[in-house]
Amino acid sequence: MGLVTLVLTVCLASAPERCREESLQLDTHGSLTQCMFQSAMYIANWSEQHPALRVKKWRCKLPDVDRVI
Q1: In Å, how far are 27, 56, 64, 65, 67 from 45, measured between CA atoms?
Q2: pLDDT at 58
Q3: Separation between Cα atoms, residue 4 and residue 37, nearest integer Å
Q4: pLDDT < 70 positions in the chain
Q5: Average model confidence (pLDDT) for the chain?
Q6: Which of 4, 5, 31, 64 could be cross-linked to 35 through a Cys-Cys bond (beta carbons 3.0 to 4.6 Å apart)?
Q7: Where are the domains of the chain?
Q8: For 52-64, how does the pLDDT look when each residue is reduced to its tens digit (9 = 90+)?
Q9: How far apart are CA 29 and CA 27, in angstroms?
Q10: pLDDT at res. 64
Q11: 6-22 as b/e, with b when 16 or more CB fall inside 10 Å?
Q12: What is the DSSP secondary-structure string of 1-65?
């Protein structure tokens, strides 16, 4: 299994209607299920580093295999 990406939808704390997506490449190889179980730790760390933003929702996804780098 390849790397898993944690995709966060984050919004400004001061303007909750202004949102965007942030993608975090997880350090571990694993499944989508493992990503969901481990996501709380990654979200907590990310939130500490970005106090002006609030995580509204998140999801895990596998990398795009057809993506040209």
Answers
A1: 13, 15, 25, 28, 28
A2: 95
A3: 13
A4: 1-2, 27-29, 64-69
A5: 87
A6: 4
A7: 3-61
A8: 999 999 999 887 6
A9: 7
A10: 67
A11: bebebbeeeeeeeeeee
A12: --EEEEEEEEEESS-TT-EEEEEEEEEEE--HHHHHHHHHHHHHHHHHH-TTEEEEEEEEEPPPT
Residue carrying the six token digits 């970005």: 50
Tell me the CA distances in angstroms from 63 to 21, 31, 41, 43, 59, one per residue in order. 16, 12, 21, 19, 13
Instruction: Say if residues 9 and 60 touch (Cβ distance below 8 Å).
Output: no
Please choose, from the candidates 29, 39, 33, 24, the residue with its C-alpha nearest in 3D space to the C-alpha of residue 2.
29
Q: Order of strands across the sheet with 19-29?
A: 19-29, 3-12, 53-61
Confidence (pTM): 0.81
Pairing relationship of beta strands 3-12 and 19-29 according to DSSP bridges: antiparallel
Residue type, 15: A
